[in-house]
Amino acid sequence: MRPGAGGGRRAGAAGGAGGARGRAGARAGAQGAAGAGAGAGAGARARASGAGAAAPEVAAVAAAAAVPAGRGQVLRVRGGARLEGCAPVSGAKNSALALLAASLLCDGEVCIRRVPARLRDVTLMRQVLESVGARVQAGAPGAPGAQGAEEGHAFCVDARALTSARPDAAAVRSLRASILTLAPLLARVGEAEVALPGGCAIGARPVDLHVRGLRALGAEVEVSGGTVRARAPAGGRLRGARVYLDFPSVGATETVLMAAALAEGTTLIENAAQEPEVEDLADFLNAAGGHVAGAGTSTLEIRGAPSLGGCEFTVIPDRIEAGTFLTAAALTYSAVSVAPVMPNHLTAVLAKLEATGCQVGLDGPMRLRLVPPPGGELLRAADVTSLPYPGFPTDMQPQFTALLAGAQGSALVRETVFENRLGHAAELGRMGAQLRQDGSAVMVEGRPPARVPGQSGGGGAGGAHSGLWGASVSARNLREGAALTLAGLAAEGETLVTGVEHIDRGYEGFDEKLRALGADVARLEAGPGPLDMKRPA
Ligand code: EPZ
Fold first, then answer.
1. What spacing in Å lies between the alpha carbon of 250 and ligand 1's midpoint?
2. Ligand 1 contact via 251 beta carbon (within 6 Å)
3. Within 13 Å, how many C-alpha atoms sit on residue 525's CB side?
4. Is the CB of 206 within 6 Å of ligand 1?
5. 297 and 348 housed in the same domain
6. Are 240 and 201 in contact (CB under 8 A)?
7. Is the pTM of this model over 0.85?
8. N or C: which end of the chain has fewer CB within 10 A?
C-alpha cells in the first residue's frame, strides 16, 4: 500500500577551491587578526539569486529571541470537528538547524531554502551565527530562484569573515542545537568555546559522545564551568580517524561529520545515526565541496577537504510535522493529505498508522493521504517502541500515545531514546486517558468513542472522536504540546493547552494550519485569571 518514493537531489554546488587560504582567513578573523578578508573570494560560490534581498534586522531578531513567542498564550481546542484538506509541511527543523550550523564550515556564501523561519529555534540559531560574525540574510517566502511559495524562506549565510569562536552564551543556552556550532568553529578556526546546552524536560542530554568524537579527531577538549572548550592540534587541522559511537546519536554523528569534513585524511564513523536529517547534512556538505559517503547508513566515510565553498540547498520536508498532521487526521477519523513529504522518511510512522486501521497512500508527487478505518471501524490499539531511525521516531511518540488514548484496546508504549519523555501521560490523564506508567513504558487502555463520529447514532459535528474530555493541560516541551493539542481535537468539550511557546519552537503556524483543516483551535492571550482568555491582538 505504502509507496517508497526516493527524494530528488536538491543542490547547486561550487565548493572547496579556497583551501588553506580560506581557512587561514576565517581563523585570522575569528582570532581577531585583520586577515578576515584574506579568505574572501576563495571558493567559488553560488548565491541564491535574490535570496539575500531583505536586510537583516539584528535588533528585531534579538528582541524576537528574547521573549519566546507563544509565552503567555493558550491554545483553546474544541473537540469533535472533522478535518479535511491538505496540510502544508514546512522544511525540517532538525535539518535546518544543522545546516545553518554547518554553514560556518563554508568559505563561501550558502543559501538554504525551505528554512522554517518562523520557528523560535531558527531565530536563536541565527543569533548564534551572527554572534560569531556570520552574516545572515533571510529572503521572503518564494524568493526569486525558489521553486514556489511552499519553498518557504531562503536563508543566505556568509561565514567567510568570522570574528569570534565563542558564540553568544545566552543564545547558546536557550537552544540545544547550538552545540552543533562547536565542530564547525573548531574545524574552521582551530578552536571553539561553546556553552553547554544543558538538559531539558525530556532528559539529561549529555554531550559526551560529541566530545569523545572530537578527541578522536585529535582535538583537545575540556568541559568545565558549563562550557566546552576545544582546540585543534598544532598546525590547526583535525586528523581523520575511526570513531565508534556507543549510541547512534543524531547530534554526535552530526558533530563528528562536520569536524571530519575539513580534517586531514579520512574519518570513519561507525554506529552512526541514519536519520534523514543526518543524510541531508551529508548532502549539504557534498554540495559545498565535501566528500561524504554512506549517509543514511550506520557507517559514514568522510574524506576531509582543505576547505568548503558556497552552495544552494533545499532542506528536506519535516517528517515529524507531516507525521503529526497524519496522526491528527487519524484520531479525528478524517481524510487528510500532507505535502510536501518524502514518504520513505515516514515508513515506521505509516506502518503504525496502518496498524490502527487507517490507510495511507500517495495522492500526488511528495504528497501523502490518510483515510480513516473503513466501514465505521474504530481505531485499533497498536504497541509502539521509539528507536533510532529507521525505527519509530521518539519525536512522534507523544502524538501517537494521544491517538492510542482514544483507540479500541490496550497498547504498550516504550520510550527507549530519551529517559524522561513520558510527561504527557499525566496530562492526558487529566483528560480521562487511562495510562499506567512503569519507568520508560506506559500501558494505554484506550477510551474509544461509542461509535465512529459521523456514523449513524455516533459523533460527527460536535461528537467526540474518543472517550476523552476537555481539560486544562500544560505542555513542557514541543512534542508534548502537539500531543495535547491533538488529544483536544478528539476530546469531548474544550481543552486549554498552555506552554504554547514550546510548540512554536518546532511547528510553524501549528494552530493556523489546523484551523485551515477545519479544526476549532484558537490562540488566546492568557489573562491574569485562570480562565480569563482573550484572542491575541
Ligand atoms: C536530535 O536531538 C533532535 N534534535 C531531537 O528532536 C530528536 O529527538 C533526537 O535527535 C533523536 O532523534 C535536533 O536535531 C535539533 P541524540 P539530539 O543525540 O541530537 C543520548 C525534537 O522534538 N546522548 O540522538 O540531541 C541522549 O541523551 C527534538 O525536535 C548521549 O548520551 O539527540 C539521548 O538519550 C527533541 N550522549 C540519546 O542519546 C551524547 O553525547 C539520543 O540523543 C549525545 C546523546
1. 6
2. yes
3. 6
4. yes
5. no
6. no
7. yes
8. C
The residue count for the chain: 537
Residue 40 lies in a domain: yes
Taking the centre of ligand 1 as the mean of its atom positions, its distance from the CA of residue 473, in whole angstroms, is 25
Closest CA to 154 of 63, 54, 57, 60: 54
pLDDT for 289 equals 98
| Minimum CA distance residue for ligand 1 atom 10 | 250
Q: What is the per-residue pLDDT for 226?
A: 92
The count of domains in the chain is 2
Q: Which domain holds residue 119?
A: 92-314
Question: Which pLDDT tens digit goes with each residue over 240-293?
Answer: 999 999 999 999 999 999 999 999 999 999 999 999 999 999 999 999 999 999
User: Given this model, what pLDDT does residue 56 score?
Assistant: 43
Provide the CA 335 distance to its chain's centre, in angstroms: 25
Q: What is the CATH number of the domain that holds 106?
A: 3.65.10.10
Side-chain-side CA neighbours of 94 within 13 Å: the count stands at 15
- Cα–Cα distance measured from residue 233 to residue 280, given in angstroms and rounded to the nearest whole number: 29
- The CA distance from 401 to 414, in Å, is 10
Residue 388 predicted with pLDDT over 90: yes
Same domain flag for 204 and 334: no
What spacing in Å lies between the alpha carbon of 174 and ligand 1's midpoint?
Answer: 16
Tell me the torsion sign for CA atoms 179, 164, 303, 283.
positive
The response to whether residue 100 sits with its C-beta less than 6 Å from ligand 1 reads no
- Asked if residue 249 and residue 344 are part of one domain, the reply reads no
Say whether 200 is catalytic: yes
Q: Which atom of ligand 1 sits closest to the CA of residue 209?
A: 40
Per-residue cell: 130 = 551572527
What confidence tier does 7 reach under pLDDT thresholds 50, 70, 90?
very low
* Beta-bridge partners for 338: 87, 368
Q: Which of 298, 314, 330 is the last residue of a domain?
A: 314
